[in-house]
Design brief:
globular, six-stranded parallel beta sheet, 13 helices, 472 residues, eight-stranded mixed beta sheet
Length: 472
């Protein structure tokens, strides 16, 4: 009996060159890819476009988000011609369904609503634990450890089930399509394990792209911290790294961390940064106010309090009003379940602050193009560079970067012209805002940090694609 042909949920129309322009195909496994609006989808959206310019078409196995807040239909127009997108949706485990039902009954009986949690970039839960797991008392430490163990088990059980379905679908697709290689992008990093199984079944080269570190102390989710998470994460990382023909990381800091564990494989570990895109331009802002903006989610240490305190000091010293200075956040309205408006009020800038939830990328770009100062808040991920940095370096704005010394972000931007300060340096933050505000009022606008093109994504894409073409 003939095997049925898997059907994509979307196929990008061929361009004028038609099928003749397709020389090779890659099969990419990545949870995040357009129309998914998550920040992680942008990397391979752009890399796939660069590959298409070389005649390489990238088919993708992904999760097509049903939540309208996570889906931007317009981004399907960015999918390169001839590419096919396949959806493998997430499924709840029976125990998770039962658990939610029990919790629902308990909440109704209590007459209370439990706080919601969003999936973080690793597929776990982020924001909202407030350090409670780490600050447990001796009497409840056993229960806390059991809770972390269960969450780690449930996390992997859910994603392992997804990876098995992806691997089965990928094997069927690869049996009917001549692919040059199987590529994976994560987090969620279980995508690499699914890709490894596909590559094994189809006898194809495997390329894994770690947008963030996988088995790393700073990436260990607090709500799952413990032996189960470490054992499974370490095992999956090792078997994927050892099988891969190429391991890609996006910062030199991440490469150093990985090489420390896999010294014998160092020649197969390549740094390919995210990069600045030509579609992000300085714009022609006529905004007369000094806008300080932040576009993106607030997770894992991105506490805005020091920034707000610095703003309050500068505003008080200069005697500024809302008509002269505004702090505008887009992407999150809370930090660790506390409304940002409340934090702004506590720090004395309520009248100067506005925030709104996630908006389409075009609207976020419009905000930062209108801003005099853009901010990078501290984060727990020391080996990663926030994707927004590569948008900021394209703009005629002053980046205010709060990060510890030696982080990947510090290594990239120190000495670049950005104001790079320690996260708790409130006096330095206030001084930077005051200095840039006075320059702004005098009519000064900075040149983009990337005016010389040193951070261009096309350079990074060429670096990766050159290696992949040699592999295949």
């Amino acid at each position: 009996m003939p095997v049925s042909v898997p059907r994509p949920f979307f196929t990008a129309p061929l361009d004028d060159d038609g099928a003749a322009a397709v020389s090779r195909r890659l099969l990419l496994v990545s949870v995040a890819y357009p129309p998914n609006a998550e920040v992680g989808s942008l990397r391979w959206q752009k890399l796939a476009q660069a590959a298409r310019a070389r005649g390489i078409v990238t088919d993708v196995i992904m999760v097509d988000p049903l939540d309208p807040s996570l889906r931007e239909e317009s981004r399907l127009s960015e999918v390169p011609a001839g590419a096919r997108l396949y959806d493998v949706p997430m499924r709840d485990l029976p125990i998770q369904k039962a658990q939610r039902a029990v919790r629902g009954v308990a909440r109704r009986l209590r007459g209370a609503t439990a706080p919601s949690r969003e999936r973080d970039a690793n597929g776990g839960t982020g924001g909202g634990d407030g350090g409670g797991i780490d600050n447990i008392t001796h009497s409840d430490s056993v229960a806390a450890r059991l809770g972390r163990t269960y969450r780690a088990w449930a996390h992997y059980a859910e994603w392992e089930e997804w990876a098995s379905r992806v691997a089965a679908l990928g094997a069927r697709i690869a049996a009917q399509t001549e692919y040059a290689a199987v590529v994976s992008s994560g987090p969620p990093h279980i995508a690499h394990e699914a890709a490894r199984r596909i590559a094994e079944s189809a006898s194809l080269p495997l390329v894994i792209d770690l947008r963030d570190p996988w088995f790393s102390d700073d990436m260990e989710p607090p709500l799952m911290r413990g032996n189960v998470w470490r054992r499974k994460t370490s095992r999956y990382e090792r078997q994927c790294v050892k099988r891969a023909a190429l391991v890609v990381v996006n910062t030199d800091s991440s490469r150093d961390d990985l090489v420390a564990r896999y010294a014998a494989d160092a020649d197969r570990i390549l740094t390919v940064m995210n990069g600045a895109d030509a579609d992000v331009t300085p714009g022609h802002s006529t905004e007369r106010r000094f806008i300080i903006s932040h576009a993106g989610s607030l997770y894992r240490g991105r506490d805005p309090r020091s920034l707000f305190q610095g703003v309050a000091r500068a505003v008080e010293k200069l005697g500024l009003t809302r008509n002269e200075l505004l702090v505008h956040f887009m992407g999150s309205t809370t930090y660790e379940e506390t409304p940002l408006s409340q934090i702004a009020s506590e720090e004395g800038i309520a009248d100067l602050f506005v925030c709104e939830p996630r908006r389409p990328r075009a609207e976020a770009l419009a905000l930062i193009q209108d801003s005099a100062m853009v901010t990078v808040l501290p984060q727990g991920y020391v080996h990663s560079i926030p994707g927004k940095v590569f948008e900021y370096v394209q703009l005629s704005t002053w980046p205010l970067v709060l990060t510890d010394r030696g982080t990947a972000t510090d290594r990239l931007l120190h000495g670049s012209g950005a104001d790079v300060l320690l996260p708790d340096d409130v006096a330095g933050i206030a001084e930077a805002i005051e200095r840039r505000y006075l320059a702004f009022r005098a009519g000064v606008r900075p040149a983009p940090i990337n005016a010389d093109g040193r951070f261009n994504r096309d350079r990074q894409a060429a670096k990766l694609l050159d290696v992949i073409e040699r592999l295949v």
